[in-house]
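Give me C-alpha cells for this 800-residue protein.
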Amino acid sequence: MSLMELGELLERSEALVVRERKEDYRDGIPRLKRSLAQIEVDAQKVSAARGAVGRNAVNEARAVRLLAEYGFETSTFNRNFKLANLDGLVESYTDFVSYVDLPSFLERNFEEGASETKTKAQNAAQKLYRKALDSRLEKDLSSARSGLWSDIQQTLQHSSSKLDNFKSIRIKQQAVVTIDPDYFNVIRSFVTSGVNTNVDNPADALQRAVHDSDPHVSACYNLVAVLADESSRNRNLIPAARRILEQQFRARLEAKYPAMGSLRDSVPLFLRTEAPELADDDAGSGEGGSIALWPQVFFLLRCGAAIEALELLDQHTYEDGGHYSGFLRNFIENEESLEEEILKELIQDYSLMVVRGSDTYQKACYVLLARIDPLGEPYLSSEDVHRLSKSVEDYLWLMLFCIRTDEERSSVPKDLQGHQLLLADLQAQIRGLGAQHFDPEGRRPFLFVWVLLLTGQYASSLEYLLANGDVVNSVHLGLPLFYSKLLQRERQAVGPSRVEAKLFDYELLLNEYSSGLALSHPAEAVYYAFLTENRAKREELLLKILVEVKDVGVFLGRINEENVKVPGLLEELAAERPELNLDVTKLASAAAEKIARSGDIYTALEMYFLEGNDAAALDLLLPNMSLELFAQASFDREQVLSYSRRLLGLNKGRKSDQTRGEALFMRKRRSLDVLVKVAQFLDLHRRDDKVRAWKALTEMEILPLHQEELSERVRDMALDGSLRFDRLVTSVGGEIYAVAMDSLHTLLLKEQVEARKSQDNSARVRLQELEGVAKTMISFGSIMKYEGAEVYSLPVLLGT
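Here you go.
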C-alpha cells in the first residue's frame, strides 16, 4: 500500500469517527484494542463471508456497507486477497463489526509507514550530506593544494620549471620491511668497527655489495663515496661532481678509441667517428681529414684535461691568435678561476669577435672559462646547448662547470653578476623536469637519483627512493650522506634571494626501518639502531625493540648450565663500542618496567635477573606473590612461586646481590620469604596434611606461639606494615590467622584423643602445650581485631 493510499484511508477513518460521534449515528463500531494479527484474521473473515455457503445475509450486508463506507468495493477487496494467495487460508465469519476497530488499525498502519518512510528519508539525506561534505572537503583540499604549489612555483626563477614530482614519504607501518644480507654485512662491520676507523665511509663497501643489474645503482654509491670524501676534506662538492663526469667520459673515450700517444690523439679519433661533420676533408688526410681546433679543445676540457688543451692551443697559435691560450693558462694557474681583469678581457673578446661567429665549440670554450649561465643572452642558444649535450651527463657537466661557489661569486664584476648560473637554478630545473624526463619508462629510477646527487639534492634523492618504495637503498645510500653531514648541511632555495635548510630526518628513517625489522630480524634491527647518532634517540629505539620483541636471550644473554652468564648482543656491542656509553643494565630495567606494565611480568623478571637487578625483581614479585597467595593451584601462582624461590636462592640459581645489605631491601626480601612459606603452609593445609602444615607455620615467626612472643608479633603484624614486614604481608594476616586456627583446632582434637587413649604422660604434655598456644593465638586475634577472629576461636575454646 502506497503512502498516498494510506493517507486517504486515514482521512476516511477520521470522517467515520466524526460520524459515529453524532447522535443520529446508531450503528457505532466498538472500540476494541486488537493486534495486527487479529485484525488480519478479521479482514480475511469479511472477505470469506461473501463466498461462504450458508452465510448470514444480515452480517454480510453490514460488512458490505461498512467496507463501502470506507471506500472499498468488496469485489475488489476479495480479488486482492486472492492475488495474495490468502483466499484459501481464510474461513467464514459472521460477526465482523463487533471485533474490528478499523480506524485504529489504519492509524497504526499510517504511523508505522510514516515512521519507516521518515527513517529512510533521514538515512538518504545523511548519505547525500556526507557525500556532499566529502566532495566539498576534497574540493577545498584540492584547491588548497593547488594554491600551495602555485605559491611555491612562483618562487622558482625559471618560470618554465615544473613542481617537484616527489615528496618525503615515511615507511608505511603495514609495509613489509626487507633486509639485504650483503648490505647488512657492511652495516655490521661499520657498527662494530666504529666511526673513527678505516671503515669511516661505508659508501665504498656498500658499492661493492651492490648486486643490482642497473649500473646507476653502483654509480650512485660511488658518487656518494666521492662526495663524502670531498666533504671530509672541506672541498666544494660541485667541482667534485663535475670531475666525476669528466673522469667517466675520459675513461669511456680512451677505452673505445685507444691511441698510441696521449689523450690528444684519442680525441680526434673520437670526433672522426662520433662527429664526422667536424672533419676537414679538404686537408687531404688519409684518415678522413683533420679536425678543427675548437671541438678538440672543448672535448679535452670535457675530459678534464685542461693542460692538454693548453698544449694543443700552443701548437695552433695561428688559429687562436694567442688570446684563448692566455685565458686558459690564467684559468689553470688560478685554480679554475680567472682574475677579474682577465675575465673582463675574455668577455670583451667574446662579445667583439667570438659571438659573431658560427663555431658552437669556440663559443662554448669561452663560456666555460667565463663560468656564466650558458643559456643567458647573448651566450649560447638552445641549439648550441643541444649540439653540445649528446647525453644527460654532457648537459650536467656543462652546467656544473659554469656554477660558481659563494666565495667565487663575490669576485665577479658587477656587470656580470646577473649573468651567473646559481646552483639553485639548476636544482629547480632538474626538479621541474622530473623523473619522467630522465626515466620515461620508469625502469631506471636510479638514473634520476644519480642526477639529484650530482646536483647536490641529497635529501630529494632519498625522498624519491622512498616514494618509489625502495626503502632498503634509501637507508643504505643515506648512511654515508648522513655521517658525512651532507644531509645536515644541504640548503634549498625557497625564493629569489632566500635559502633555507632542506631537512631530512634520516634518524627517523632508521627508527622506522629498525622497528620494521624488529619482529622478523631482531638482531639485525639492533645493528641498524646503533647507526643512530643521537644517544637519546638510539637508546629510545633500542628500548622500543626490546619491549616489542622480548627476546631476552638474544639481547641480554642467558645463564648457562654452569650458572655463568653468557652475554647478549647488547652487551657485546656495548663492549665493542665503549664510546657510546650504553648502559645495558639501565636499558634492560627500563624495558622490563614497560613490559611488566603491559602484563608480562615473567619476561620482565628474566630481564631483572640477567642484569642482577634484585631490587626491581623483588618490587615486582612481592605484590604478585601476595595477590596469588590464596589462589587455588594455577599457572600464575606456580610461576610467581618459582621466580620467588629463585630470587630467594631457595632453588637452583644465583643468590641476591649486594643490595640485600640495605634495610629496605631486607624488609621486602623477608616479606617475600614469609609469603613463600605461607604458600607452602597453605598447600599442606589444602592437602589435609595438618601436622606438616602446623610445623611449617611455626617456622614462619609471624604468629605468636607463646605468651612472651605476643607483643612482638602484634608489633610485627601491624596492618599498615612494620619494620619487619611489608604491608603486603600484614594485610593478609587475618586470612593467615584463620587458616592457622583451623589447623590448630584439628591438632587439638587429635591430641585430645591421643591423651585419652594413651597412658603416657607425654601426650598430655603436648595437649597442654597446644592449649597454651591456643590461648595465645586467641589473644592475638582479639588484639589484632581480625575479622571473624571470635568465630575461628570458638571451636578451639569449646574443644569441639
